[in-house]
Specification:
Blueprint (H helix, E strand, L loop, with lengths): L1 E6 L31 H11 L5 E6 L9 H10 L3 E6 L13 E5 L8 H9 L4 E6 L9 H7 L4 E3 L6 H11 L8 E5 L14 E2 L8 H4 L4 E3 L7 H10 L2
Parallel strand pairs: 1-2, 1-7, 2-3, 3-4, 4-5, 5-6, 7-8
Antiparallel strand pairs: 7-9
Length: 240
Protein backbone atom coordinates (compact mmCIF):
# COMPACT_ATOMS: atom_id res chain seq x y z
CA UNK A 1 0.00 0.00 0.00
CA UNK A 2 1.22 3.51 -0.84
CA UNK A 3 0.43 6.83 0.82
CA UNK A 4 -0.49 10.23 -0.60
CA UNK A 5 -0.47 13.22 1.74
CA UNK A 6 -2.34 16.36 0.72
CA UNK A 7 -1.47 19.55 2.63
CA UNK A 8 -4.82 21.33 2.54
CA UNK A 9 -3.87 24.50 4.41
CA UNK A 10 -1.23 26.09 6.60
CA UNK A 11 -3.92 27.65 8.82
CA UNK A 12 -4.49 26.42 12.35
CA UNK A 13 -6.68 27.44 15.28
CA UNK A 14 -3.94 26.44 17.76
CA UNK A 15 -0.63 28.13 18.47
CA UNK A 16 1.47 25.26 19.77
CA UNK A 17 5.02 26.35 20.70
CA UNK A 18 6.44 23.03 19.46
CA UNK A 19 4.68 23.11 16.06
CA UNK A 20 7.05 22.28 13.17
CA UNK A 21 5.02 24.55 10.86
CA UNK A 22 6.53 27.52 12.70
CA UNK A 23 6.76 30.62 10.53
CA UNK A 24 4.89 28.88 7.72
CA UNK A 25 1.70 28.76 9.78
CA UNK A 26 -0.62 31.61 8.88
CA UNK A 27 -3.96 32.63 10.31
CA UNK A 28 -7.19 31.67 8.60
CA UNK A 29 -7.81 35.35 7.77
CA UNK A 30 -4.35 35.95 6.29
CA UNK A 31 -4.83 36.72 2.56
CA UNK A 32 -1.41 35.17 1.83
CA UNK A 33 -2.75 31.79 2.90
CA UNK A 34 -4.39 30.11 -0.07
CA UNK A 35 -6.89 28.29 2.08
CA UNK A 36 -8.57 26.29 -0.66
CA UNK A 37 -7.80 23.51 -3.12
CA UNK A 38 -8.61 23.14 -6.80
CA UNK A 39 -10.81 20.05 -6.91
CA UNK A 40 -10.63 19.84 -10.69
CA UNK A 41 -6.81 19.66 -10.57
CA UNK A 42 -6.92 17.20 -7.70
CA UNK A 43 -9.39 14.96 -9.52
CA UNK A 44 -7.22 15.01 -12.65
CA UNK A 45 -4.09 14.11 -10.70
CA UNK A 46 -5.78 11.27 -8.82
CA UNK A 47 -7.45 9.86 -11.91
CA UNK A 48 -4.15 9.81 -13.83
CA UNK A 49 -1.75 8.46 -11.22
CA UNK A 50 -3.29 7.36 -7.89
CA UNK A 51 -5.14 4.01 -7.95
CA UNK A 52 -7.73 3.78 -5.10
CA UNK A 53 -6.83 0.10 -4.65
CA UNK A 54 -3.15 0.90 -4.05
CA UNK A 55 -3.16 4.23 -2.20
CA UNK A 56 -4.43 5.64 1.10
CA UNK A 57 -4.84 9.43 1.18
CA UNK A 58 -4.06 11.46 4.30
CA UNK A 59 -5.20 15.08 4.63
CA UNK A 60 -3.11 17.34 6.81
CA UNK A 61 -2.17 20.99 7.42
CA UNK A 62 -2.14 23.21 9.52
CA UNK A 63 -5.56 22.06 10.65
CA UNK A 64 -7.12 20.49 7.54
CA UNK A 65 -10.73 20.69 8.76
CA UNK A 66 -10.47 24.51 8.58
CA UNK A 67 -9.88 24.43 4.84
CA UNK A 68 -12.83 25.89 2.92
CA UNK A 69 -12.69 22.94 0.55
CA UNK A 70 -12.39 20.28 3.28
CA UNK A 71 -15.92 18.86 2.93
CA UNK A 72 -15.93 18.91 -0.91
CA UNK A 73 -12.51 17.21 -0.85
CA UNK A 74 -13.76 14.44 1.45
CA UNK A 75 -16.83 13.98 -0.74
CA UNK A 76 -14.71 13.79 -3.89
CA UNK A 77 -12.27 11.25 -2.41
CA UNK A 78 -15.15 9.14 -1.08
CA UNK A 79 -16.87 9.16 -4.47
CA UNK A 80 -13.63 8.08 -6.15
CA UNK A 81 -13.29 5.14 -3.73
CA UNK A 82 -10.28 6.19 -1.64
CA UNK A 83 -9.57 5.35 1.97
CA UNK A 84 -9.05 8.67 3.77
CA UNK A 85 -7.17 9.61 6.92
CA UNK A 86 -7.17 13.08 8.48
CA UNK A 87 -4.46 14.31 10.88
CA UNK A 88 -6.24 16.76 13.17
CA UNK A 89 -6.16 18.54 16.53
CA UNK A 90 -9.68 17.17 17.24
CA UNK A 91 -11.44 20.54 17.42
CA UNK A 92 -13.58 20.43 14.29
CA UNK A 93 -14.20 16.80 13.32
CA UNK A 94 -18.01 16.88 13.27
CA UNK A 95 -18.04 19.51 10.56
CA UNK A 96 -18.71 16.47 8.37
CA UNK A 97 -21.08 13.53 8.77
CA UNK A 98 -20.44 9.80 8.71
CA UNK A 99 -18.20 8.47 5.93
CA UNK A 100 -17.50 4.72 5.69
CA UNK A 101 -13.83 5.01 4.68
CA UNK A 102 -12.73 7.96 6.83
CA UNK A 103 -10.49 7.78 9.90
CA UNK A 104 -9.19 10.61 12.10
CA UNK A 105 -5.76 10.71 13.73
CA UNK A 106 -6.02 13.10 16.68
CA UNK A 107 -3.00 14.69 18.30
CA UNK A 108 -3.51 16.01 21.83
CA UNK A 109 -1.80 19.38 22.40
CA UNK A 110 -1.95 19.75 26.15
CA UNK A 111 -1.03 23.45 26.11
CA UNK A 112 -4.02 24.20 23.86
CA UNK A 113 -6.80 21.81 24.99
CA UNK A 114 -7.59 20.06 28.25
CA UNK A 115 -7.77 16.28 28.09
CA UNK A 116 -11.46 15.99 29.00
CA UNK A 117 -12.37 18.12 25.98
CA UNK A 118 -10.04 16.11 23.76
CA UNK A 119 -11.55 12.84 25.00
CA UNK A 120 -15.13 14.10 24.59
CA UNK A 121 -14.45 15.27 21.03
CA UNK A 122 -13.13 11.83 20.07
CA UNK A 123 -15.95 9.93 21.75
CA UNK A 124 -18.61 12.14 20.11
CA UNK A 125 -17.09 12.03 16.63
CA UNK A 126 -19.22 10.81 13.70
CA UNK A 127 -16.29 8.82 12.30
CA UNK A 128 -13.64 6.39 13.52
CA UNK A 129 -10.94 8.13 15.58
CA UNK A 130 -7.51 7.28 16.92
CA UNK A 131 -5.45 9.39 19.26
CA UNK A 132 -1.76 9.58 18.33
CA UNK A 133 0.70 8.58 21.05
CA UNK A 134 4.29 9.83 20.82
CA UNK A 135 6.42 7.91 23.35
CA UNK A 136 9.34 10.31 22.82
CA UNK A 137 7.37 13.56 23.18
CA UNK A 138 8.01 15.14 26.57
CA UNK A 139 4.79 16.23 28.26
CA UNK A 140 3.75 16.84 31.84
CA UNK A 141 1.25 13.98 31.62
CA UNK A 142 1.88 10.61 29.99
CA UNK A 143 -0.79 10.61 27.31
CA UNK A 144 -0.87 6.81 27.11
CA UNK A 145 -2.03 6.59 30.72
CA UNK A 146 -4.94 8.91 29.93
CA UNK A 147 -5.79 7.13 26.66
CA UNK A 148 -6.01 3.83 28.53
CA UNK A 149 -7.97 5.37 31.41
CA UNK A 150 -10.59 6.88 29.08
CA UNK A 151 -10.60 3.85 26.72
CA UNK A 152 -9.47 5.93 23.75
CA UNK A 153 -8.04 3.88 20.86
CA UNK A 154 -4.63 5.12 19.75
CA UNK A 155 -1.79 4.54 17.34
CA UNK A 156 1.89 4.97 18.05
CA UNK A 157 4.11 7.43 16.23
CA UNK A 158 7.44 9.20 16.73
CA UNK A 159 7.77 12.88 17.54
CA UNK A 160 10.19 14.57 15.10
CA UNK A 161 10.52 11.29 13.19
CA UNK A 162 13.14 9.81 15.51
CA UNK A 163 14.35 6.52 13.98
CA UNK A 164 15.26 4.92 17.31
CA UNK A 165 11.71 5.45 18.59
CA UNK A 166 10.25 4.08 15.35
CA UNK A 167 12.44 0.99 15.67
CA UNK A 168 11.39 0.33 19.26
CA UNK A 169 7.69 0.64 18.40
CA UNK A 170 8.02 -1.59 15.34
CA UNK A 171 9.68 -4.27 17.48
CA UNK A 172 7.08 -3.95 20.24
CA UNK A 173 4.06 -4.08 17.90
CA UNK A 174 5.69 -6.51 15.44
CA UNK A 175 5.18 -4.10 12.55
CA UNK A 176 7.05 -5.40 9.50
CA UNK A 177 8.73 -2.95 7.19
CA UNK A 178 7.63 -3.30 3.58
CA UNK A 179 8.67 -1.09 0.64
CA UNK A 180 6.17 1.63 -0.19
CA UNK A 181 5.90 4.94 -1.98
CA UNK A 182 4.93 8.13 -0.17
CA UNK A 183 4.05 11.33 -2.01
CA UNK A 184 3.17 14.74 -0.59
CA UNK A 185 1.51 17.49 -2.59
CA UNK A 186 0.92 21.01 -1.41
CA UNK A 187 -1.53 23.66 -2.55
CA UNK A 188 -0.25 26.57 -0.48
CA UNK A 189 3.22 27.09 -1.94
CA UNK A 190 6.34 25.25 -2.99
CA UNK A 191 7.43 24.33 0.54
CA UNK A 192 5.60 22.26 3.11
CA UNK A 193 7.19 21.51 6.43
CA UNK A 194 8.37 18.23 7.86
CA UNK A 195 11.42 17.34 9.93
CA UNK A 196 13.56 17.40 6.78
CA UNK A 197 12.19 20.68 5.31
CA UNK A 198 11.86 19.19 1.82
CA UNK A 199 10.38 20.98 -1.17
CA UNK A 200 7.06 19.50 -2.26
CA UNK A 201 5.32 19.86 -5.59
CA UNK A 202 2.47 22.32 -5.95
CA UNK A 203 -0.74 20.71 -7.19
CA UNK A 204 -1.49 23.66 -9.46
CA UNK A 205 1.58 22.81 -11.56
CA UNK A 206 0.14 19.41 -12.43
CA UNK A 207 -0.84 18.54 -15.99
CA UNK A 208 -1.60 15.15 -17.48
CA UNK A 209 0.74 15.96 -20.36
CA UNK A 210 3.70 16.41 -18.02
CA UNK A 211 2.68 13.98 -15.29
CA UNK A 212 5.93 12.01 -15.32
CA UNK A 213 7.96 15.20 -14.91
CA UNK A 214 5.76 16.19 -11.96
CA UNK A 215 5.92 12.94 -9.98
CA UNK A 216 9.68 12.77 -9.21
CA UNK A 217 9.55 16.16 -7.53
CA UNK A 218 7.01 14.86 -5.03
CA UNK A 219 8.66 11.73 -3.67
CA UNK A 220 9.62 12.27 -0.04
CA UNK A 221 9.97 8.79 1.47
CA UNK A 222 11.86 5.92 -0.12
CA UNK A 223 12.28 3.72 2.95
CA UNK A 224 15.15 3.29 5.40
CA UNK A 225 16.97 5.21 6.78
CA UNK A 226 13.81 7.35 6.73
CA UNK A 227 10.55 6.15 8.28
CA UNK A 228 7.47 7.90 6.98
CA UNK A 229 5.12 8.82 9.86
CA UNK A 230 2.19 8.74 7.42
CA UNK A 231 2.91 5.08 6.68
CA UNK A 232 3.48 4.40 10.37
CA UNK A 233 0.11 5.80 11.49
CA UNK A 234 -1.91 4.29 8.70
CA UNK A 235 -0.50 0.77 8.76
CA UNK A 236 -1.68 0.50 12.39
CA UNK A 237 -5.17 1.89 11.73
CA UNK A 238 -5.92 0.30 8.37
CA UNK A 239 -3.85 -2.87 8.78
CA UNK A 240 -2.32 -2.56 5.29
Amino acid sequence: MNYLTIVLTSSCNFKCPECPMGEYRKSIEDPRNYNYINLEKLSEFLRDLIDPCEWIIELTGGEPTLCKEYIPTINLLTKMGYRISVLTNATNMNVIGRHPNLKYFCTWHETQMDFKTFSKNIQNCNNECYAVYYPNKKTETDAKVLFDLYSIPYVYCSWNEDLFTFGNIMEKLKIPYVPFESITINNVGEVAVCAKMKPYANLYNYTSKNKYDFIPKQKTCTGFPTICPVWFRNIQAWGV
